[in-house]
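Let's practice the habit of predicting before peeking. Look at the sequence and jot down your guess about where helices and strands might fall. Then scroll down.
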Amino acid sequence: MRTPLQGRMRTKVRRRPSGLVLLTDRRVARGALVEVVASAVGGGVRWVVLREKDLPRAERLALAVELRAVLADVGGTLVVAGPDPLDGDAVHLPAAGPYPPPRLGLVGRSCHDADELARLTTEDYATLSPAFPTRTKPGYGPPLRPEGLRALVDASPVPVLALGGIETPDQVRACVDAGATGVAVLGALMRAPDPRGVAATLGSAFEEPPTATPEERQ
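Done guessing? Here is the structure:
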């Protein structure tokens, strides 16, 4: 039986983030940001969300140009955090706004609970966080864990990416089992000595059958 939110699901079909999605953070990256992203792309990442919101627009735009060039070679997509698409057509917005969302080719929004999901209107996807305890934002939560994630996925009118504290293939699989179309990862890739290898390992979990119940992976 559909919930009221699910009844509002739009019928239009767009390419949305799925699989392994990389969120950038140059402050924790083990190397130059573009090089770290390029390595992760070599390991299978096809969606990148450019954060770095503290940079001046000109510097952020230059980063966007470089990252789009990296992704263009593999047919990937750059999504920009915040309402300014930096000459692109894809943004990821915070839960706080703006409302209504801008009219662009792809719009995502950060959500954390059912009330925030209920505010979605024309967004194409949402992230739900934190899925697990996270080193990037310690104390941020409480974590949803697979059971809580599943409940919110069931209530969401749009496809969902799980975000927060995802560092192992088992955690990836648990999020997929809970209904997420993909997982968004920051620390596990930004901090990795070998982003390519970590991306390949995490990405392989999307192709594997579950080996444990979501509860067992908490």
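How did you do? Residues 24 and 50 are 5 Å apart (CA to CA).
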